[in-house]
Amino acid sequence: MTKKDITQLSYEITGYAIKVHRALGPGLLESVYEKCLKYELIKNGYMVGQQVMAPVVYEDIIMDTELRLDLLVNDCIVVELKAIENVLPVHEAKLLTYMKLLQKPQGLLINFFTDNITKSMKPFVNEYFRMLPDE
Question: Domain holding 47: CATH number?
């Protein structure tokens, strides 16, 4: 997996999110968008985990937690979906934490409560992304 591969996959996920948003519009529950985006990704050949557990390791002990991320695409991009008026810094921090806990290089925070997914979507990368080869 390269930075170029991750960036391309992120672009494709965003395209499918836009397709779902165009079909449904804003105003629905987050779970509806999650199911539709998962369906669209699987239909197009991607591996998608839904409500994936994010284990917390503290002092070499795996803690029993209920941390669940919305979607994990091709075991490398964490997708957190929202359907809220305002995305807050805590939502960004949550996504970055999931990326760190699962050691995934990229995350996408997509808010469906918008008129334009492209304007509201926020991509994030971390040290795992920076360690990948460019091509």
Answer: 3.40.1350
